[in-house]
Amino acid sequence: MQIADILKLALEKNASDIIINWWSKPSLKIYWEIYFLDDLEIISKEDSRKLVLSIMSENQKDEFLKNLELDFSIELKWFSRFRVNAFVQKDWYSLVFRPIKTNVPSFESLELPEILKSFTYKKNGLVLITWAVWSGKSTTLASLIREINNNMSKHIITVEDPIEFVYQNQKSIIEQREVWTHTLSFDNWLKYALRQAPDVIMIWEMRDLETFRLALRAAETWNLVFATLHTSGAARTIARIIDMFPWDEKEIVRQQLSESLLWVVWQQLLKTKDWNQRVPAIEVLINTTPVANMIRKNQTHQISNAMETWKESWMITMKDSLDNLFKKELISKELYEENIALLDRYN
Fold first, then answer.
1. What is the span of the domain harbouring residue 122?
2. What angle do CA 120, 183, 246 make, to 5 degrees?
3. Which of 37, 131, 159, 197 has a CA that sits 20 to 30 A from residue 208's CA?
């Protein structure tokens, strides 16, 4: 069976991931359980090497052999796109594929809080969507870009690693660039994107200090900037950003954030009670005047507690979100209690 056949089978079985490594049969992850494809042969070391390199471009091969791991995407024509992670383990190669829906999901289909849709109507500022890999950040971001594309006449520029959802121009013009394929780095792209008459800038992931500097500058200069970040807790995210900067820049950064930040969204995907799907638990921090004052005065440690009293400002705490999912019987009592117990650590 060819890799294309395995990927097609994964789509038929509604698998969330396809795992291929040497000395094992290919396997599918379906509703958080691993299922080996018993009809297939065990993959040898040499076959794993050929398979991994066969789906890479020459530039990707060079990058992979240099760094021993690589994120990229491939397209199975007429079927789906896949996010791919290639890596070295036990001296040989492995692959994990994740299907990407061909159509960008609508805001409503993701069961996101209605307040998130208001993000798309702002003319400038910074919106951060946070948490770990596989938490649905990219999908939420894609739905917001879709909302702008369908309803407004904007110039949208994205930088991604790799490109996942592919957009078609509707009312907006969308230009998508992939790191290493179309640009050398996030910060290199952002430096030039500011000269390309953008209205909306989407940064797939904020990875380094220079990207943060440029993103804040872009948000200050009449661009609406969306970005993802690997942090937990909306309030903690702000503190983490400030901590990244040298001590002599912190005061300036606090001022910039207090003026440019619009929202921070902390998102988790949780297994439903019947294990048939995942639902989002979402915390939303809005940069109101009191929040901006706390950022300026270096009092970000007070934001989490203060959010409890600001719910009339459309803020949502993670506890509120978990309570709501539990009351609707969408998540189990065990999962609810486990996540409630983790909140103190996150905040």
1. 108-346
2. 75
3. 197
Average pLDDT for runs of 10 along the chain of length 347: 87 91 90 88 88 91 93 86 91 90 83 90 95 81 95 96 89 92 85 92 89 92 93 90 94 96 94 84 93 95 86 85 95 94 76
Instruction: List Cα–Cα distances, 257 to 126, 212, 285, in angstroms.
Output: 8, 11, 13
The secondary structure of residue 338, as a DSSP letter, is H
Q: For residue 121, what are its two tokens?
A: 């109507």
Domain shared by 19 and 93, yes or no: yes
How far is residue 288's CA from residue 313's CA, in Å, rounded to a whole number?
A: 8
Query: How confident is the model over 186-238, as pLDDT tens digits?
Result: 888 888 998 999 999 999 888 889 889 999 999 998 999 999 998 888 889 99
Do both 197 and 49 map to the same domain? no
Check whether residue 57 and residue 128 sit in a common domain: no
Q: Confirm if 112 and 143 have CB atoms less than 8 A apart.
A: yes
Laid out side by side, the sheet with 155-160 consists of 173-178, 155-160, 200-203, 224-229, 125-130, 261-271, 278-286
Angle (CA) 293-227-288 rounded to 5° is: 20
CA 331, CA 177: separation in Å to the nearest integer?
38
Respond yes or no on whether the N-terminal peptide bond of residue 280 is cis (omega within 30° of 0).
Answer: no
Same domain flag for 84 and 119: no
Assess whether 129 and 271 both reside in one domain: yes
C-alpha dihedral over 110, 74, 19, 47, to 10 degrees? 170
In terms of domains, do 223 and 85 share one?
A: no
What is the per-residue pLDDT for 346? 65
Residue 142 phi/psi, 5-degree rounding, is -60, -40
Query: What is the pTM for the complete model shown?
Result: 0.86
Instruction: Please indicate, yes or no, whether residues 196 and 321 belong to a single structural domain of this protein.
Output: yes
Q: Could you tell me if 164 and 138 are in contact, meaning their C-beta atoms sit under 8 angstroms apart? A: yes
Residues 192 and 95 in one domain: no
From 82, 100, 118, the end of a domain falls on: 100
